[in-house]
Amino acid sequence: MAGDFMSEAEAKEKGLNRSFNSYTLRGRFNWVAVTYGSIFGLIALYKIKKMLFPPPEKPYVRSSSPNRGQQGPGSPPQTRASRNCGCRS
């Protein structure tokens, strides 16, 4: 291809040093491609894991008193003493 000139120093490099060289445009592009690829890959893995293994549903626990914590229209507001929580003040 036109414009794919390699210098002597670059021609001597082998393996990852040649592919991820920060002095050439091709090496910089490879770093960008790896960075974006890893980010998108992690997002895809997270979504696939979420889809394959949904969180467990919480069991429905019924309260012992049906009106616990609710006040009627004529009832006085609850104070610390009237709650009978067994706590010491």
Summary of the model, kept short:
The chain has 3 helices and no strands. It has helices at residues 8-12, 16-19, 25-52. Residues 57-89 are annotated as: Disordered.
How would you sum up this structure, described in words?
- The structure is a single chain.
- This protein is mostly helical and 89 residues long.
- It has a domain at 7-56.
- 42% of the residues lie in helices and 0% in strands.
- It is built from 3 helices and no strands.
- The longest helix has 28 residues, at 25-52.
- It holds the Pfam family ATP_synth_reg.
- The chain crosses the membrane at residues 29-48.
- Keywords: Membrane, Transmembrane, Transmembrane helix.
- Residues 57-89 are annotated as: Disordered.
Structural descriptors:
mainly alpha, transmembrane, 89 residues, rod-shaped, ATPMK, transmembrane helix, 3 helices, membrane, 0% strand
**Globular, elongated, flat, extended or rod-shaped: what is the shape?**
rod-shaped
Q: How much of the residues is beta strand, in percent?
A: under 5%
Given as residue ranges, the uncertain stretches (5+ residues, pLDDT < 50) are none
Mean pLDDT: 75
* SSE string, helices as H and strands as E: HHH
Main beta sheet: strand number and arrangement? none
Content-based structural category: mainly alpha
Instruction: Give the N-terminus to C-terminus distance in angstroms.
Output: 83 Å
Q: Fraction of residues in helices?
A: 40-55%
The whole-angstrom Rg is 33 Å
Number of helices: 3
